[in-house]
Amino acid sequence: MIGASAAVTAIIVAAATLLPDYTFMLILLGPVKIKWIAAVVVLLSIAGISGSNIGGNLAHLAGALLGFVFIKQLKAGRDLGRPVQAVGSWFSNLFNRRPAMRASSTRRPEPVVTAATGAGPARKPVNQQLQDEIDLILDKISRSGYESLSKEEKQKLFKASQQ
């Protein structure tokens, strides 16, 4: 809990920087724009610097500065929170070791048959027919999930995975 008020000050100033005209309905005061709430919070921290909690008020001002800079950088296209998110994701992945599942297709484009070559429609090789069936099953999984497959489709998929 110690130091949380500096983080709250950062959030108030960041919100006021992002949406300065956003209005809150405060009890006894009525509608107040967030920019005025942020200004009062910052002014109270400045006024408290000469008091007994100098470190706390300096922390509030540092939080206010951080909130302001964060939003200005975000508007400029630089997300200062990205490294923090990357560290969080790394720790999350460290404890949740699930292999990333990927479905890939080895389908190759069929050769183009023109009337000039004189070749008629050729039958697909057995391997290509099997691959087409597997591709259709994988498409069904991506649309409806594994549980939507029939028993035969599951068996075909299993047999193809053993090859």
Topology:
Elements: H1 4-18, E1 23-26, E2 30-33, H2 34-47, H3 54-75, H4 82-95, H5 126-144, H6 151-162
Antiparallel strand pairs: 1-2
Helix pairs in contact: 1-2, 1-3, 2-3
Keywords: Membrane, Transmembrane, Transmembrane helix
Subcellular location: Membrane
Main location: membrane
Rg value:
31 Å
How helix-rich are the residues, as a percent range?
A: 55-70%
Average predicted confidence as pLDDT: 83
Structural class, judged by helices and strands? mainly alpha
The tally of helices reads 6
Strand order of the largest sheet: 1-2
The domain tally reads 2
> Tell me about the biggest sheet?
2 strands, antiparallel
Distance between the termini: 59 Å
Structure, explained:
The protein is mostly helical. It folds into 2 domains: 4-81, no CATH class; 123-162, no CATH class. Helix content is 59%, strand content 5%. The protein contains 6 helices and 2 strands. It has helices spanning 4-18, 34-47, 54-75, 82-95, 126-144, 151-162; strands spanning 23-26, 30-33. A two-stranded antiparallel sheet has the order 1-2. Helix 1 packs antiparallel against helix 2, helix 1 runs parallel beside helix 3 and helix 2 packs antiparallel against helix 3. The chain is elongated, with a radius of gyration of 31 Å. The model has no long low-confidence stretch (mean pLDDT 83). Keywords: Membrane, Transmembrane, Transmembrane helix. Residues 102-126 are annotated as: Disordered. This is DUF6576 domain-containing protein. It is found in: Membrane.
